[in-house]
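Q: Enoyl-CoA hydratase, please. Structure only.
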Amino acid sequence: MSEQDELILFRIEDSVGIITLNRPDKLNAVSWELAAELSKLLVSLRYEDEVRAILIHGAGRAFCAGGDVDFISGDSERPMPGTSDPSRPIPRSQRKTPGGPFFEVCRQLIQVDKPVIAAIHGPAVGAGLAYALACDRRFGDTTTKMAAIFTNIGVAPDCGMSYFLPKIVGLPNALMMVETAKTFKAEQCKELGLLDELVAEGEAYKEALSYAKSLAGRASVAVDMARRMIHMSAQGATLEEILDYEGIAGVIVASSNDAKEGTASFLEKRKPVYRGN
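A: Structure for Enoyl-CoA hydratase:
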């Protein structure tokens, strides 16, 4: 299979795993197959020690134009519960979780247990916006456009949109975005908090990669555990639960080689050299 036929491209640069959504002719719209490959890759990266941070971006003119309309409409080879002919056989696993790997991508963006940075240009709408919101930080350029576009085509938000959106833009703005499905330009996205960093056209990938590399060069065990605890808090852990987990995590992190290096470098007044273990 040639590179242009692959739905997902992956390479490692300076301990950053770079994921490219590779359906540029479809503005990287997420098909069932692409979602399945992406979720499996994220699962594997959790256990890939060479990768200390992850960057995700899109090939061509877009980050991601959402879910593939052929699948959503029920007209693809794989049936879609609710829109396909009811007489078509649907796999048992899909009946229990109709979104299948589309939803699993969102779950694995968190459970990968490493920082995930999004580099966004062009449209990031629907599922594409949901995936971007699940990332730790979003770098966009002046071509960026974002929308919770679901109700424009008569469907409800999915892929974790309802979880992440109100946490990032606040309840009133989240309600406005899902109810109107309005598209926002780059400056508006920055004002709403959908983008964390707004850079010049064509610069989002470079800036996001630089940031990801800076994280990859840090004490990875500590960074990953800190990330995990913030997500626990965001998902509703109580203060007592967080305090208990911080105690446990503190012991785990303190036993790492990087913790010893960090302490030694501080006492010796030099820059630490972290190795991610």
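A: Brief note, in case it's useful. Residues 70 and 275 are 45 Å apart (CA to CA).
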